Amino acid sequence: MTATTEQFALGKQKIVEDLSVLLTDSEEMLRLATALPGEGVDALRERLRAHVDTLRAALADAQVAAQRGYRSVTVQTERYVRHNPWQALGAAAGVGFLLGVLVAR
Fold first, then answer.
1. How confident is the model at residue 97 (pLDDT cuts 50, 70, 90)?
2. Between 20 and 30 A from 76 (CA), which of 5, 13, 32, 34?
3. Among candidates 89, 80, 62, which has minimal Cα distance to 8?
């Protein structure tokens, strides 16, 4: 696995974990909110708000990482095509041929 692939996998795993924690805490807060007076509900809302802010930050970080990875792959692909035009042309022709065979079926 490349470093970029590992970063994407770890980022995805972290987002899933954050969503799971947020969902669990939200369910707990909803269950407790019915029995608590106004102060308790306010505290629960603040806790939920903190989790949502954390999740938003994690999603923003994942988006930035994805954009960096995309830019990196784009630059590497362009560099490869410029240094190996014939190999790139051959690869594109091969992919085109395979797609044509699959579409013709």
1. very high
2. 13
3. 62
